[in-house]
Amino acid sequence: MDRPMDGNEGAMAAATALETPAAAETAAAASRDERFAALVASHRERARRLAWRLVGGDESAAEDVVQDAFVRAYRALDRFRGDSSLETWFYRILVRQAHHHRRWRALRDRWNDVLEGEPADPSPRGPGDPGLRQRIGAALSKLSRRQREAFVLVHVEGFTVRECAAVLGKPTGTVKSHLHRALRSLRSELADLHRSDEGERAEGRSPS
User: Fold this and answer.
1) Which of 125, 136, 122 is nearest to 60 (CA)?
2) Can you list the domains of the chain with their CATH numbers?
């Protein structure tokens, strides 16, 4: 038969019972922070590349989008319910932030055009052929928002169609439709580049 607890033991047991939920909450928060820190470390570079492409090749804007996405994700961690992976949930936030930035930039550029009387230089900055990069960027800009996001996620960043669907919150069939239309549009817009490439290969096969 257990002996009854004395007053001191009872007080200690009551204090432990009160402290347990707080201790458990602290441990859970620490675990969540560690997991989020691991997410930032392992996905920062991919997130930056994705943002750079979604905002049209603007390095500074891409960095802002990534920073905002990580901050928003961290602040919303308590609302993450695990319906998808933490990574998928984060990229969903990133894509949304990139979309918001493009809308804000379009409004800003339109306003600047009115004030300055001439359009800003749309040429993307970065390595490679500036003319080719501008052509590709312009072709991507003509796609619808969802077509552009699906194309970049799948054909540029290597997400599977299923992963892309989870990020965009769309059925896989819808994503496949976006991809089909995006490819058809890009082939039409960049058809002359394809013909030029074929001509160069044909010349290389011609006897000297």
Assistant:
1) 125
2) 37-120 (1.10.1740.10), 129-199 (1.10.10.10)
Q: Write out the two tokens for 13.
A: 């047991």
86-102 confidence digits (pLDDT tens): 899 999 999 999 988 87
Kindly report whether the global pTM for this prediction surpasses the value 0.85. no
Q: Are 70 and 29 in contact (CB under 8 A)?
A: no
Residue with tokens 């038969």: 1
CA 25 vs CA 19, 29, 30, 32, 78: distances in Å: 10, 6, 9, 10, 12
- Helices marked H in the chain — which ranges? 7-54, 59-75, 86-116, 130-141, 145-151, 161-168, 172-189, 191-205
Q: What angle do CA 67, 128, 200 make, to 5 degrees?
A: 140
